[in-house]
Amino acid sequence: MTGTDAAGARPPVLELQSVHKRFGEQAVLRGIDLVVAPHEVVVLIGASGSGKSTLLKTVNLLEQVDDGRILLSGEDITDPRTNADAVRARIGVVFQHYNLFPHMSVLDNVTLAARQVARTPRAEAEATGLALLTRIGLAEKAGEYPDRLSGGQQQRVAIARAIATDPELLLLDEITSALDPQLVGEVLDLVRELKAAGSTIVMATHEMSFARRVADRVVYMKDGVVVEAGAPEQIFGDPQRAETREFLSRLQDPFA
Question: Which of 65, 66, 121, 149 falls between 20 and 30 A from 140, CA-CA?
Answer without folding.
Answer: 121
